[in-house]
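subagent[fold] <- orchestrator: predict structure for attached chain, return tokens only, no commentary.
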Amino acid sequence: MTGAEWVRSALASMPMPQAPSAGPWDCSAAALIAPRLPAGVRRVAGSLDRFGAVRLSPWHIGIDTTRAVPWQAVLEVRTRPLLDVIATTIGEQAAKFAPPVPGMRYAANKVLPYVANTIASTLLVSLLDRHDGAAVAQVPYAITVRGRRKPETTTAGPVSAAILCLPQVSACLITTAGCYGIPIVGAQATLPPGSVHRFAEKLRDRATQGGSDDHTAIPAQAPGHRRGGPAFRSRPGLHR
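subagent[fold] -> orchestrator:
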């Protein structure tokens, strides 16, 4: 099963958020990636959430943070054209998740290809599932909230950016923000409409590199694996 097929299957089994939000919903790196991992490294699922998570509800929003913030604290939502977000995310995931990483434990290095593959696969699914026109679609990528001294802006990392590109997720965030009267600040497109097919091909290539579901080469017990450590604490990646 390819990465894109896996992501489609995983998303099909998840309750997706409504627009506007009708209840708590969250999706993290662990929710998308952990089920794909070889058995020998699956216990690192708890540490995958550090790669990103999106949390939405009628009352709160969270992007790449352990604590969601009330919608009333949000000053603005920033959006960018889908293709621009994809271009940025491809560059970030290539820089951050290109294994091996010196000094990282064996199990963690085995996980990185699955992270990169899942990001590319989710972006591909988002691009192909856009019925509102991928070339002109705007997706949320950052929120600005009231800070203690000055406004603070949180920009989505690669995993969260890929989740926010999903049509249902971006619609939920933007529509819910509109219900609170939160300004939506959009950016102009910097890439030509003809880039859609080029990006689709690039994402297909990325989605077939690494993260193979052939686990025969992965030992059941990875070197350096230990039980019960704080790095292996897991929490659910999706709630309804």
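orchestrator: received. Logging for downstream: The chain is about 40% helix and 15% strand. The mean pLDDT is 79.
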